[in-house]
Amino acid sequence: MKSDLPDRTFEFAKRIVKLCQNLEEQRGVAQTLSRQLIRSGTSIGANVEEGQASQSRKDFRLKYNIACKEARESLYWLRLLAECEIIDSERLGPLMDECNELISILTAIVKKLRD
């Protein structure tokens, strides 16, 4: 996986899209959770991309803060999918690990920009 944050968040979004495509084949709760996850999971990279084009430090921090919040929300949905046994937790493990790493990276960036 690429280490550049915009590329890394794009790769994460691709993995989320593929997972959600599988969830959409199911009915009921799986579809509902899929729709929540697709929004938050793809929003991380979109906000990082917007941050890259920001015109001020404040705007950059805002976009990265939103990306961090979306990553936290994504982790929530992934955890829920695993705990409710909608998707096998072993299958979700690597995706949850990546999401945790993105949260750590984004949190560090936002904190540094506050100082």
Helix content: over 70%
Radius of gyration (CA) equals 14 Å
Give me the strand/helix succession: HHHH
> Could you tell me how far the N terminus lies from the C terminus, measured between alpha carbons in angstroms?
30 Å
The biggest beta sheet is recorded as: none
Number of strands: 0
Shape: elongated
Structural domain tally: 1
CATH class: Mainly Alpha
Spans with pLDDT under 50 lasting ≥5 residues? none
Strand content: under 5%
Annotated CATH topology:
de novo design (two linked rop proteins)
What is the correct CATH architecture? Answer: Up-down Bundle
**What's the name of the CATH homologous superfamily?**
23S rRNA-intervening sequence
Calculate the mean pLDDT score and round it. 94
Q: Count every helix, treating DSSP H or I runs of 4 or more residues as helices.
A: 4
Structural class: mainly alpha
Describe this structure in words.
The chain has 115 residues and is mainly alpha-helical. It has a single domain, classed as Up-down Bundle (de novo design (two linked rop proteins)). Helix content is 84%, strand content 0%. Helix 1 (5-24) runs antiparallel to helix 4 (89-114) and helix 2 (29-52) runs antiparallel to helix 3 (57-83).
Task: Please tag this protein with its features.
elongated, mainly alpha, de novo design (two linked rop proteins), 115 residues
Topology:
Layout: H1 5-24, H2 29-52, H3 57-83, H4 89-114
Helix pairs in contact: 1-2, 1-4, 2-3, 3-4
Summarize the structure.
The chain has helices at 5-24, 29-52, 57-83, 89-114.
